[in-house]
Amino acid sequence: MRSRVESVCAAIGPLDQAAMEAARARQPQLTKPWGSLGRLEDLAEQIAGITRTPIPRLGARTIITCAGDHGVVEEGISMFGPETTPAMVLNFLAGGAGINVLARLAGAEVLVLDVGVAADLPEHPHLIHRKVARGTNNLSRGPAMTRDQAWAAIAAGIDAAEMAIDAGATLLGTGDMGIGNTTPSSAMVAALTGEPVARVTGRGTGIDDAMLARKIAVIERALAINQPDPAHPIDVVAKVGGLEIAAIAGVCLAGAARRVPVVVDGFISSAGALLAYRLAPAVQPYLIAGHASVEIGQRVVLRELGLQPLISLDLRLGEGTGAALAFLIVEAACRILAEMNTWEGAAVAGPLVADRPSEDARSA
Amino acid sequence: MRSRVESVCAAIGPLDQAAMEAARARQPQLTKPWGSLGRLEDLAEQIAGITRTPIPRLGARTIITCAGDHGVVEEGISMFGPETTPAMVLNFLAGGAGINVLARLAGAEVLVLDVGVAADLPEHPHLIHRKVARGTNNLSRGPAMTRDQAWAAIAAGIDAAEMAIDAGATLLGTGDMGIGNTTPSSAMVAALTGEPVARVTGRGTGIDDAMLARKIAVIERALAINQPDPAHPIDVVAKVGGLEIAAIAGVCLAGAARRVPVVVDGFISSAGALLAYRLAPAVQPYLIAGHASVEIGQRVVLRELGLQPLISLDLRLGEGTGAALAFLIVEAACRILAEMNTWEGAAVAGPLVADRPSEDARSA
Fold it and tell me: Which of helix, strand or coil describes residue B9?
């Protein structure tokens, strides 16, 4: 499994500069003032570079919702019991969860990857069975999993992403389901960035002050007991991470290796993206931050990754919901580049002065 | 015309509290943690209150792009010449402008309202002819228009919105086209709020420092010469406003009176919304701020209106582009409320503790 992951990491190349330049050069030809569509213009350029296409168009798109359970739930750090993880997976398969609603709106398919749910799940065309373990061990009392399990979970994410791409996906989104999974996410982010636990730990599904204090103490104990080594990301995810978080890293890596843009959902997905980035920094330009989560730890990750979220609507649901909404913005960016008239084509007079205003105007 | 506008203002009622409470009460029954979809939940509640429907669904939707010209362009305050206004209207009608691309993505129709373009425009099913004047007068040398013209322009916006609603629109978006129109927008906002001109004046389509300094001086001269009375909004729009800005106010008022939500686009639209608000404060809860514009004056307006934008992507194109993108968020909010499974329906165990976490968790 490790060699599988490492070969995918090695396959990630740089963005295509020629395609990016062509996309950038087209924007001032479109019937709008220079730079007036802001981040939509940057995004179209990024997609051009990822897909090696000067005027990219999106086809099918897939949200991969990675699911797993967490032994640490026994410490009383979540509003929900572990039985909710498999029940929500069934809800995803029935099409009734938040991610289903928003994916339908964005014209996306939802694939669920079971990489660690602590229950048996049925056969279903949208469910990929790659259970590495029936949940992790309680990370506040020892390692959450073995390193082999961590590699296997990342590989499962890679395989799920490749399956989606082989089936035609031109845009991937990450998602998560796992009761208790903000706890390993915060632990991983604290370990990988060196930030104090309290600065990267939030209220998850809505715990109160007392539970938050307990959650922070649990994570601090996990770090003290396990001593994860920030120089070895696989050590960090094995000791204090989660199976679905590892799988999300795999989705990021496979998307990048196959030149398919990956929209990263909220905090848990960002922790997975950070793991991917530490394994292969070349993954960074293939990632798009879908939304700014309410979870405070996400800010730290996005700063580390150099990503700015597309949407900020105080979401904290996970599942891929923020990524699905952001798909609409990515689609808008591509359509603008492809579908707008040019000044010449529309016979509209362009700016009086110059296509490219001076630096001070551009930085306005 | 004045009585027409005043009767619409008088017809605006409060939001339906019962429908809002029903919408709010449904959110914790849906298969997600309490409050986890943030502003999407607030938005669904607002739409419920506007439409008097506990579980609102959106049908047809329309962007009304109001177009007019500005005598002040002769002062050299824009990157584009006035011939671009009618040319862009033709571009809208041909479907090749930014607003067309984003409206298509959002499943919306674009109606163009000519309330003051300084050129003859053709017959077209998507163009409403209600020219009040062939552009305004140069507001830095005297009043931009008469009060009668201002009332007529607002009435034209009302009529266009009512036409769209009669044709089935369940969601309206405002938009603008008018070379030079950030200048009257800044002038109106300065006059109505008392903010210094420099704090509400930006670079429009991308002018440089020298042009920006001239633009500020032009607006200061306009205010000094015309002495608009902030206590009389119609005096402000007549002396230093624009015909399409007045029409946008009319769209806001008519949407509110007919209980149809109105998504306000960027800076010019926000200036129009502020005019509507000063004419009829009851319009406020019917408005949704589509996006945060790059234009600095918009912040001042949104603070005054108590609105928080849904999207922030550094856009400054106008036309209704930010409103069209925001339509997708409004749609998402309504679909979540209508389409998600309930805990009971999905047979998923809800939160362990309580549906409604304590205040400290909710404000997290």
Answer: helix
Q: Which of B6, B75, B319, B331 is labelled catalytic?
A: B319
Residues in A touching B81 (Cβ below 8 Å): 349, 352
**Which of chain A's residues have a Cβ under 8 Å away from the Cβ of B331?**
105
Residue B177 host element (H or E): strand B169-177
Closest CA–CA distance from residue B242 to any residue of chain A (Å) = 20
Give the integer Cα–Cα distance in Å for B235 and B148: 10
Name residue, tokens 């922790």: A271
Mean pLDDT in residue range B312-341: 98
When scoring B341, B343, B359 by the number of chain A Cβ atoms within 10 A, the one with the most, hence best to mutate, is: B341
Determine whether the interchain pair A80/B352 forms a contact, defined as Cβ–Cβ distance below 8 Å: yes
Q: What tokens appear for B81 in the block?
A: 């010449």
pLDDT of A196 over the 80 cut: yes
* Angstrom distance (rounded) from CA A199 to CA A362: 35
Q: pLDDT averaged over chain A?
A: 95
CA B242, B64, B12, B23 dihedral sign is negative
- Residue B96 in contact with residue B134, Cβ under 8 Å? no
Nearest in space to B179 (alpha carbons), one of B49, B282, B78? B78
| Chain centroid to CA A140 | 25
Residues B334 and B56 sit within 8 Å (Cβ to Cβ): yes
Mean residue pLDDT across chain B = 95
Which domains does chain B carry?
60-334 (3.40.50.10210)
Predicted local distance difference test score (pLDDT) of residue A7: 98
Say if the ipTM goes beyond 0.90: yes
- Give yes or no for A96 touching B (CB within 8 A): yes
Q: What is the DSSP string of A166-189?
A: HTTEEEEEEEEE-TTTHHHHHHHH
Interface check for B107 against chain A (CB to CB < 8 A): the answer is no
Mean pLDDT, to the nearest integer, of B2-21? 98
* Complete DSSP assignment for A64-130: EEEEE--GGGGGS--SS-TTHHHHHHHHHHHT-SHHHHHHHHTT-EEEEEEEE-SS-----TTEEE-
Q: How confident is residue B205, by pLDDT bands cut at 50, 70 and 90?
A: confident
pLDDT for B54-87, tens place per residue?
999 999 999 999 999 999 999 999 989 999 999 9
**A195, A220, A319, A359: the active-site residue:** A319
Tell me the residues of chain A between 283 and 322 that have a Cβ less than 8 Å away from chain B.
294, 310-317, 321
Q: Which residue in B30, B34, B40 has the most chain A C-beta atoms within 10 A of its own C-beta, making it the best mutation to test that interface?
A: B40
- Which are the contacts of B87, defined by CB distance < 8 A and separation ≥ 6? A346, A347, A348, A349
**What is the pTM assigned to this prediction?**
0.95
Give the minimum alpha-carbon distance from A265 to chain B in angstroms, rounded to a whole number: 13
